[in-house]
Amino acid sequence: MVSEKPAVLETVLGSCVAVCLWDEGLKIGGMNHFMLPDVTEGIKNPLYCGSESIETLVSGFAKTGIDTGRLRAKIFGGGKVIKGFGEHLDIGRENVRIAKEILNGYGIPIVREFTHPDYGIKVVFYSATGKAFVKQLQDE
Question: How much is the pLDDT for 90?
């Protein structure tokens, strides 16, 4: 989602990743949230996947006429919150990897990263300023 008006965007993440992008000069920002790194067979909505979700987010900026070279990024999430899979299946790590790979391909610098926690987090992103806050979610 790209917001041309100031907005407070929030999401909750475990192994999922959120990419926050903004143009500081124009005070326009946006955020996505995805669960899997790449589109695989059986996925009902490709926006659940980082490869499609990030492309769609960047395209949203391009459609407003923003030069994507002016964008800055923050990445959150990608935690290993399910311990039972061992090292063989780390969806969070792969989600972070694909986010970095795609942003690098666009030449969008990552100015902050809070990734790979062992717990869930809540992210609050202010689209006009690019400020973001992270809160650890407590196990119940």
Answer: 86
Among 22-36, 45-59, 78-92, which stretch is predicted with the lowest mean pLDDT?
78-92
**What domains can you pick out in the chain, each with its CATH number?**
2-136 (3.30.1330.200)
The Cα–Cα gap between 72 and 33 comes to 17
Confidence (pLDDT) at 87? 63
Tell me the pTM.
Answer: 0.90
* Spatial contact of 2 and 71, defined as CB atoms under 8 Å apart: no
The contacts of residue 92 (CB under 8 Å, 6+ apart) are 14, 15, 16, 17, 77, 78, 79, 80, 81, 115, 116
Q: What is the pLDDT of residue 107?
A: 96
What is the CB-side half-sphere exposure of residue 25 using CA atoms within 13 A?
6
